[in-house]
User: What shape does this take?
Amino acid sequence: MSSSERVSTYPQRVLMATERLILRRFRASDAPVLAAYRSDPDVALYQSWDAPFPVEKAAVAVRNFADSSPTAAGWFQYAVELAEERRLIGDVAVRLHENLVQAEIGFTLDTAYQKKGFAFEAVSAVLDRLFRVQGVHKVTGECDARNVRSAGLMERLGFQREGLLRQQTFIKGEWTDDLLYGLLATEWPAGR
Assistant: This one.
């Protein structure tokens, strides 16, 4: 049974479940936890925000996340919850293009839960939903070229490196190179 087939056994706020995780909509009570992991300098290092990430800003973000739709064009943020502890440990972002058959993906995980396979599990579930349930043709990902862990995760998931944009992004006072990745629906393994 795939993660997308298990959705119906959970309340509406839960969108997917895996062996160890629940992927759901954000709720107001998530703001302090979101602020905490986004305030970690190691988590924020290659992201667009600066640490610390104030709880007030997190509250606004959570409201915006909760108001978006996983099937409409634009950004949707899945809250990644550790099922056993019922604790928010990160998020997976998806931007559906206007045509609804192309998407971009991003991911953030609390440092305490990194290197345990949770990001792979969460992103796999989201990709499975995008390809099998929503009929997306292609998903792309982009990361700072120095972010070897994000690049490695995308490669383990089957993404192909499609390019290097030299000095593409001016962020946190410096120009950075960006790696571009892509994954086609036809490349998504049937066994996941």
